[in-house]
Amino acid sequence: MKRRNAWLGIILLALLMGAGGRALWLWLDRPIERVSIRGEWEYVSADYLRTQLAPLVVNATWLSADLGELRDRALNIGWLNEVRISREWPNALVFELVEQQPVARWNDDFLVNPKGEAFAFAPLSPPSGLPDLAGPNGSSEEVLRYYQRLKSHFAQLSLDLTQLRLEPRGAWRLQLNDGVWVMLGRREHEVRLARLSASWQRELYSLGDKIRYIDLRYPNGVAVAWHGESEFEEPDE
């Protein structure tokens, strides 16, 4: 009988603890009433971030909210590079947000961060003054890396590399000083760039405003198209 009573006592205590624990959980797991955002932002505004985050916590409750899932969904918001989320007593979530740092335009509708990762800038406007890069899907890292190499090269000639394009077949073309286009092609890039540097320093620098584009895809020398002239036949690489 004593053993039976002991077992009944243990069972009753477990039931009471379970009921109390559930009651405590239900009391704590109240609807989220406040979302705080923290961080330093240059391109996005707090109002934009609040508008984008608000739908993520609709009908969510404080304890049941899956912070990992919320983070993954928040990272889909344009301009966010890092997201950290924590709970704040009694019914708030705190979002620590790090924005993307754009270093170039990409394929008209996107921007590129320093890692070469593309992200959409809509519904915000892109910053002005960024170089314009383009290429096949998935090539943003390669194009940015080559842009950085070429930028240093042309800086030695006091030229600004404003556009860089990787064509689907692997040919490169670029624009200098928002004006002169250069057809670099698919191969022998270093040889061709050296040829361009020599030609530019020797005579082309004084004619820059008259040049429409420079074609480096010839075995020897460079071909120059001038504004107002008809097209000349392009070489077949």
Give the total of beta strands: 12
Instruction: Please give the share of residues in helix.
Output: 25-40%
Q: What class, by secondary structure content? A: alpha/beta
Largest sheet: 9 strands, mixed
- As laid out across the biggest beta sheet, the strand order is 6-5-4-7-8-9-10-11-12
Give the DSSP E fraction (strand runs of 2 or more residues): 25-35%
Name the poorly predicted regions: 7-16
With helices defined by DSSP (H or I, 4 residues minimum), what is the helix count?
5
Oligomer: single chain
Distance between the termini: 99 Å
Note the run of SSEs as H and E.
HEHHEEEEEEHEEEHEE
Rounded mean pLDDT score: 87
Question: From the alpha-carbon coordinates, what is the Rg to the nearest angstrom?
Answer: 30 Å
